[in-house]
From TrEMBL, chain A:
<dbReference type="InterPro" id="IPR050250">
    <property type="entry name" value="Macrolide_Exporter_MacB"/>
</dbReference>
<feature type="transmembrane region" description="Helical">
    <location>
        <begin position="455"/>
        <end position="480"/>
    </location>
</feature>
<feature type="domain" description="ABC3 transporter permease C-terminal">
    <location>
        <begin position="758"/>
        <end position="872"/>
    </location>
</feature>
<keyword id="KW-1133">Transmembrane helix</keyword>
<feature type="domain" description="ABC3 transporter permease C-terminal">
    <location>
        <begin position="370"/>
        <end position="483"/>
    </location>
</feature>
<dbReference type="InterPro" id="IPR003838">
    <property type="entry name" value="ABC3_permease_C"/>
</dbReference>
<protein>
    <submittedName>
        <fullName>FtsX-like permease family protein</fullName>
    </submittedName>
</protein>
<feature type="domain" description="MacB-like periplasmic core">
    <location>
        <begin position="96"/>
        <end position="320"/>
    </location>
</feature>
<keyword id="KW-1003">Cell membrane</keyword>
Automatic annotation (TrEMBL), chain B:
<keyword id="KW-0238">DNA-binding</keyword>
<dbReference type="InterPro" id="IPR036388">
    <property type="entry name" value="WH-like_DNA-bd_sf"/>
</dbReference>
<dbReference type="InterPro" id="IPR036390">
    <property type="entry name" value="WH_DNA-bd_sf"/>
</dbReference>
<dbReference type="GO" id="GO:0003677">
    <property type="term" value="F:DNA binding"/>
</dbReference>
<protein>
    <submittedName>
        <fullName>DNA-binding transcriptional regulator, PadR family</fullName>
    </submittedName>
</protein>
<feature type="domain" description="Transcription regulator PadR N-terminal">
    <location>
        <begin position="16"/>
        <end position="88"/>
    </location>
</feature>
<dbReference type="InterPro" id="IPR005149">
    <property type="entry name" value="Tscrpt_reg_PadR_N"/>
</dbReference>
<dbReference type="Pfam" id="PF03551">
    <property type="entry name" value="PadR"/>
</dbReference>
Amino acid sequence: MEELKGPPRWMDRIIEFYCRKDLLEDLQGDLHEYYFRNLEKSRRRANLIFLLDVFKFCRLYTIQKPKILGQMTFLNLMGNYFKTSVRSIARNKLFSSINIVGLAVSMSVGLLMITYIGETLTFDEFHEKKNRIYRVTSNYQSISSDDPFDLASTSVFIGEKLREQYTGFEKVLIMRRNFNADIAKGENIINVRGHYSTTEFFDVFSFDLKSGDPATALKEPNSIILTEKAAKKLFTDEDPVGQIVTAGEKSYTVTGLMSEVPENSHIQFEALASFSTLEKEHRDNENSTFFTWRSIWMNYVYLLLEEGVRPEQINQNLAEIAAEENAKTDRYTINHKLESLLDIVPGRDLSNQIGPSINWENIYQLLGLTLIIILSACFNYTNLSIARALRRAKEVGIRKVVGASQTQVLMQFVFEAILIAIFSLVIAGGFYLLIKPEFVSSVVDDENIGMQFRWIHLFYFLLFAIAIGFVSGILPSLVLSKLKAISILTDATKLKLFKGVNLRKVLIVFQFAISMALIIGATITYRQYNFSINYDLGFTSENILNMELFGNDSEVLITELSKLPEVKEMSRSGMIPSTGEIWGEDLKYKDPMDSVSIYFNRVDKNYPGVHELTFLAGGTFPYDMKEDDENPKFIIIDRALCERFGFEKPEDALGEIVYLQRRVEDDVPVQVTGVIENYQYQNLAEDPEPTALIQGGKDDLYTINMVISSNDIIGLMDKIEEIWTDVEKVHPFTASFMDDQIQSSYAHYKVMFRIFTFLAILAIAISTMGLLGMAVFTTETRIKEVSIRKVLGASEQNLIMILSRSFMIMLFISAIIAIPFTYFFFTEYILGEFKKRIDIGLMELLPGVLLIFLIGFLTISWQTIKAAKTNPADMLRDE
Amino acid sequence: MKGTNLGEFEEIVLLTIASLMSEAYSVNIVDEIEDVTGRKTKLGVVHAVLKRMEDKGLITSELGEPTKERGGRRKRFFTISHTGKVALMKAKEQRDKLWGKIPELVFQGI
């Protein structure tokens, strides 16, 4: 007869779960009988009735009592487990300390990650309406470029359009960044930085306004809200609200006083100015691009959605607006999308952030590296415990004979592992405090993340330790708990404990592969960093001191500075090349439809000389821009641009007129006075683009470049600072050497190098300790074999060979795995984005691997030599 | 005393068990009650009553041999214990007494 299909298994499971064992069988049988009866009508009906019955039979008399009894035994035995664990830890000092130290070292890194991620997750959590606040982000795709820009900023246009024509939100807040003013009250002048904001600021966000009316404080033009710290500097003890402060020719009324902005806010500011200040300036100006669809670079729009409104709804509205506006032009498309306030930090990698930003990718990378190190230490525990399981086997046997179940033995050993992890946690806490400052300053490098200790962290740490204990202890516990009492107690030598041998080898290979990968990583990043800072940029950056002008009259400063004998030459420029900063412009030659995107710098006529740029033809500008010149007259182009415009020889370009493209006004004609050899304008990571030097006026030159020659740099700096402070009162003297500026733009490679080195050291330490443990164990267990071999005439070298061979093979396998993996990882992933990079060859790959071989070899031979040198008589005497 | 007297449904179940002899297991009991009395009976109710009467000692139970039909699960067969028999007899006696006291006049015409 064909077996009929019964009810779904999961329904049976429910009844099996709750029903008392003595009632289960016949009750379940009854239900099945009914089930098959109902099946004649339809399966669905039968299933339904069965399920209902399953629930109907859940009554007081059918439910089994919870197994409190089993848990009670665990609690009773806890004292005993604790005692045996401590004894076993104390008895095997070497193995215990390898385990504890290894775990502690790796856990300290874990603790760092917990505090770091914990802190980033608190960002913007303090806003009461956080779940309803959304930010409008932008995506800008120009037809002349392949890569779209993802921006945190957006246009004023979209904010006003939403406010006027759409619903679904309670408030629309528009902000604009870069409010930067030197505000003065009487004698006191301070520099404050902040943003412009519309009146909805305090409706949307929960920032704390101490005095002033939140509804009107940002209403009138030229209103300003100060934070307490800024107000204190300016007014000392006076009440600032209602006072009038001046900023250059403008004046502002202080309408509010705020507490300091919390560190974990994605918006940071010292002052907020009313948005109406800007509106007033731009509203009547016809040429202003302030309110246009495409000016999406400086403004931020936040929406407070109505309860129950989904962001998708608003996204649709945004898409409608975009479709309508994008139809008006074919040069670019702009699209907008909402992003939740809570997804800002940590969040996507967007340009033009209003404040601090942390993206998920970085967090995942750090997390991945940490996990690798932690796993490595867990493997040590697993390996050593399985290897030494034989020693604990008798204990397991006795426990089982007196009635311990497999689960209880399992729990005992997991408990022991957790106990060790908690010991390690204490030590890890110490390491953690030791490495935290360095981590905060070089890896995090964000003044808004101080990684302050909070009590809740202790709880997380403990959970973390328990998790680590569990992960590292579960495998050996499984092995031990599965042992059969009878086989342990009758003939222990026949125990099949060494099924774990291959697993252990795999774990060791994995550990060493990680160590090698990390050390190779450290070598490669270090070389790339060195390569980057020593790269021939095509201009001189040595001994050039760049001083920021902050809008001061450069003429006055230059006259004063030229009196110093140490200052040899001077020039002025808009930006500093090779530091990652980029200024872009569109340039046309004869064909009005053919415009070229170029990178440019605004400079004076001395600039090429000071930076020793090589002229292929022509020379620098004949004169600098005059005070009342509105537009530049001259341009110097590089070889790439010269070729792009189709000049056959550099000389052909001289005297030609090219046009700087303007969107609103007429294009600006400029004359080519010289052609220079290509130089490294951008960071080495980028593809080189055509560049040009454009004559710069007073408003475009932000920096004085001085060629310095002095043995007493500190003394000279003091002299320059003196000149500076005579001219400028508010802004501090800010100058740095060009070499340092260029170097610091590669700082993240330095940071990466440090992270890799640090982790490599940890990984090597952990895996070496593990290797040592295994070597000690193997030599201990094989000491009789060694003695017998020796008696039979084996030489010491022979014995060392025999004992070391399997370890050395494992190291080789690790290298075979690690080298190609790291090679591909770095060429494809890390350095792949670098246009100018080192070639990774044997010199980069081998030293690290050899170092690890050396360390591994020393570790093993320390033990094997000891074993080979023992007197066989001592070992065999007792047999 | 409450505990010594049988409830109405208990009595029916007991009688059914007695009448089914060695075939008295839950599903059968439910079917039989439905057949004889014509009233819809739920397994859950019968199950609870059986359990209660077993606790009181009116019936005893044992598991039978596994059969193919219930996925190999054994049936629980019930038999009336001595106490159960006594309780049934007592109930019948009480009723007979009461019947005896009713004058025939009462049921005339039915």
